[in-house]
Amino acid sequence: MIKVKIPIFITIIVGIFMIAKFFLNVLWIKAVADELEQWGMIVLAMAIVLGVANILRVNLKTALKKGKDWQYKLVVVISMMGMILVGLWDLAMRGHVSAGSEFQYLFDVIYTPLSATMFALLAFYVASAAFRAFRARNVGAALLLVSGALVMIGRVPLSAAISGYLPKIADWIMAVPNAAGQRGLIIGAAMGVIATGLRIIFGIERPYLRGE
Amino acid sequence: MRKELDRRWIFLTVGLVVLAFLKIPFAVKYAPNEKTRGVYNAVESLEPGSIVYLSIDYGPSSQAELLPMHEALVYHVLKRNLKIIAGSVWETGPPMTDKAFKSVAARLQEEGISKKYGVDYVNLGYKSGNDVAIAKIGTSIPEAYPRDYLNKPLQEYAIMKGVTNFDQIGLLCNISAGAPGARQWLQQVQTRYNVRMIAGVTAVMAPDLYSFFQSKQVEGFLGGLVGAAEYEYLLQRPGFGMAGMNVQSITHYLILLFILIGNILYLRERARKKREQEA
């Protein structure tokens, strides 16, 4: 029972202080909430350490047992440990991992091109997906297709050279129907977040206790 | 008739068109919209010596889209004798900040303008914690970042003298490729402390910001590479944004062509099936 009550109590206290800080200008409430924010950042930083440990555990286990895709998992472990060790070395020798460090060098010559290449492939997949899936199967799909096409061509400067109306049409679609839809989504999501937040703060919903 | 075209032909066409139009110039017309002008005017409206807080929340995967606007913005701010405090809530952000500062400082040096780290700009590095980190930065910048990216105490830097929170910041600017990004900065800092804010985001994130622009919570924003190109055009400083507009324009039209061909084939196939059923 105490395993349930203590986390709920902590959640209520933290939640109330954070909400009170937002709405009230009371010095001691602000001081307590600021301290809690600091704790939150420390806990979240520790979560990264836990994440690293978990990646290591899951991947190393499969790699050692030569399970499914063990080669890829070995690459993950070696890459991660390599970057961690190089970063620690830089911290010990230079006191930082920024410009001029080996860590930065590896980031620039390995991570940057790999990451940019993966993202660049998107252009090819978008073109292929547009050809195969973007079809006027019904009125709704046709509307989506026409508005998507108008925005796509209206947002590039070549269209402004063809006709001054194309950018204006694209901008109208974005500023009126798109913004109206976005507002509905944002307000709806915000109401949901408020309701869920209150339910969690008052212990009605307890996802952090696996629903206990 | 074949129902599906081998996708490798599409990949090849896109690749060839991109490569060709990197070298073939043609006339495009820039018509910066009110969102781009909003960013430009916000920077122009600041008094010399004012501080801009720049949150760089993206990584190398989005650098083709965001680095041009990032560099253009840093160039504009530093050229106007404003100061930049740059932080990041993405672990990949600080190297991008370094890259932009270095290239802009070199370019300004060529123009005879000298800018010094710690005096005119500073890179605070990465802060983990997403929304909580942003809220903490809003409460106190030195408490959230006791040291910069070079691991030196912030008190050592002239730019940080007297800076405690967003009361001393003239403009908040977020360049982001996802979450945490512009929306989290709006929620945790802009609304709470009534800070003036501008943003630069990837093209897919831009639709999110229209509502905030209309409510004047964001004074302006740059959406994707075209936003960067329009901004460079306003600055009269051609960069990677404007250089990429030929290729992007043609690729958009090429994708439109693929959509048209796909739909013509689909409608023909549908008509054929209908005829067969009737027969």
List the helices and strands and how they pair.
The complex is a heterodimer of chains A (212) and B (279).
Chain A: H1 2-23, H2 27-65, H3 70-93, H4 102-120, H5 122-133, H6 139-154, H7 157-162, H8 165-201
Helix pairs in contact in A: 1-2, 2-3, 6-8
Chain B: H1 7-23, H2 34-44, E1 51-57, H3 63-79, E2 83-88, H4 93-110, E3 121-126, H5 130-139, H6 141-144, E4 171-176, H7 182-193, E5 197-201, H8 206-214, E6 220-223, H9 224-235, H10 240-243, H11 245-278
Parallel strand pairs in B: 1-2, 1-4, 2-3, 4-5, 5-6
Describe the structure in your own words.
- The complex is a heterodimer of chains A (212) and B (279).
- Chain A is an all-alpha fold.
- Chain A has 8 helices and no strands.
- Helices cover 83% and strands 0% of the residues of chain A.
- In chain A, helix 1 packs across helix 2 (27-65), helix 2 packs across helix 3 (70-93) and helix 6 crosses helix 8.
- The mean pLDDT of chain A is 91.
- Chain B folds into 2 domains: 1-28 and 244-279; 31-243, Rossmann fold (3-Layer(aba) Sandwich), CATH 3.40.50.
- Chain B has helices at residues 7-23, 34-44, 63-79, 93-110, 130-139, 141-144, 182-193, 206-214, 224-235, 240-243, 245-278, and strands at residues 51-57, 83-88, 121-126, 171-176, 197-201, 220-223.
- In chain B, helix 7 links the parallel strand 4 (171-176) and strand 5.
- At the A-B interface, helix 2, helix 4, helix 5, helix 6 and helix 7 of A face helix 1, helix 4, helix 5, helix 8 and helix 9 of B.
